[in-house]
Amino acid sequence: MEISTQVSHFKNLFSxxxxxxxxxxxxxxxxxxxxxxxxxxxxLSHVRIEYEMYGKMNPDKSxxxxxxHALTGDAHAAGFHSGDKKxxxxxxxxxxxxxxxxERYCIVCSNIIGGCKGSTxxxxxxxxxxxxxxxxxxxxxxxxxxxxxKKLIEHLGVKQLFAVAGGSMGGMQALQWTVSYPEMVKxxxxxxxxxxxxxxxxxFGAIGRKAITDDPKWNGGNYYxxxxxxxxxxxxxxxxxxxxxxxxxxxxxxxxxQQEKAGPDLSKIHLEASSKISSKTSSEAYLKTSSEASSEASLDTSSEASLDTSSEAxxxxxxxxxxxxxxxxxxxHQGDTFTKRFDANSYLYITKAVDFFDLSKNxxxxxxxxxxxxxxxxxxxxxxxxxxxxxxxxxVSALTANGVDAKYEEIRSQYGxxxxxxxxxxxxxxxxxxxxxxLVSDIMYQNxxxxxxxxxxxxxxxxxxxxxxxxxxxxxxxxxxEGIVTSWxxxxxxxxxxxxxxxxxxxxxxxVFSGDKIETASSIMEDYSISxxxxxxxxxxxIGMVTSxxxxxxxxxxx
Length: 559
Fold this sequence. Notes:
Layout: H1 3-11, E1 28-37, E2 43-54, E3 64-68, E4 106-110, H2 142-155, E5 161-167, H3 169-180, E6 185-191, H4 199-213, H5 230-244, H6 247-253, H7 266-287, H8 295-317, H9 326-339, H10 344-356, H11 365-368, E7 375-381, H12 389-401, E8 406-411, H13 419-422, H14 424-436, H15 440-443, H16 457-467, E9 471-475, E10 481-486, H17 487-495, E11 512-513, H18 518-528, E12 532-536, E13 542-547, H19 548-558
Parallel strand pairs: 3-4, 3-5, 5-6, 6-7, 7-8, 11-12
Antiparallel strand pairs: 1-2, 2-4, 9-10, 12-13
């Protein structure tokens, strides 16, 4: 294939097309061999990871994107399981011609450890007891989740992820990936998230956990095979779900609309209850006025009776189980539905892991991000009050302070925190643009070979043959570019019986910078009919090579 054809093809790689669904997909699982050590120092054995994969890996497995799910998510991020009426939770972004384009990338999504959707968690069987772990399951954190994902990625034979992405708690995992394994991540996308859980966020998690543990059916976490703590879990979900919405979205969706079959009129209930209380306490007071000496005691007794009968009448008449407003009915539905698909103990463990999350080091987020090398896209949502925009801005500021290429975008939406699951148009536009901005640094060879101008032609040709390269940059003692020699130059030198390398060096060398767009390198190669370019830094030192073969591999990856 001619380089001109490659360039033309490249320019059309990311043309807009309508996104398509994946159709039927299947889950897979992987068991981590041996003992899996947690950050706490405790260990787990036979750790199982549930995952799904969409699209195909290219030959060098460099097109893999890891998707990390949020608190109550799972591995089923896109497509349909057989019999499903609804697709995976991020179906709006994953599929042919969507932001995470399965015709270009291989998408992997796994269920976190501590979860209850196939991966090892509190509801899994403890191999030591033959019973579910329950609260004997060790405490986990976001680092543990990422470490387990790394085991899966290594099992799949992937040395470096093209990108890692997630929203909410998934965004925390994306951040943690770039901190824990900077060399394994080229790009990162963190949406509607934080680098350090705030006291307000911890408070909401604490209330949800208390709702579960105060449910008598929780039974100290030992409810497997019995009635589950549905009431507590439903309440925890209702509390959490409120934080995912916004005032504007609830106003738009529900307003003050009531159900068609509303509960009893509360004013009438109050009158009826008052009438019952008044009638009963009057009778009791009359019976207790037999002597003047006992009148004070009678008043005290009748007062206590009033309190008791008030509580009795109120509990008999107040519509506990009826939802007057549509928003109440909606939250009840969310809570009830959640209990059918999620484990209460998993909810306890995962929310606690979120509470522990803090990437700052010695109180400094800048120091916490000091080793990050991945290019970043950080997205916030204007109406998100769970993880407000200022927290995303803090992430970008800390990354930028470390010299990291970090881009900040803000989605305008009334959906609140849930917008990262709903804003199809804005998310596809931002993510597609970020992933398609491929630079020279993304494909250059950093492990290149070079020679000095004093080298002999024989040694240069031997190096080319042994290392199977056709281009050798000629560098000075301090690594600065002085020229280039090619296999064609060597052939010509042999034919002309030239022995000194200095005589055949091309000194007017075309080059690129690591931050240049790949189109720039392609255009230079086409214009000057060359197949490789040195990559230099601001001080003219050679830091890599980019070749027509690497561009061909790119097109094979994304074309």
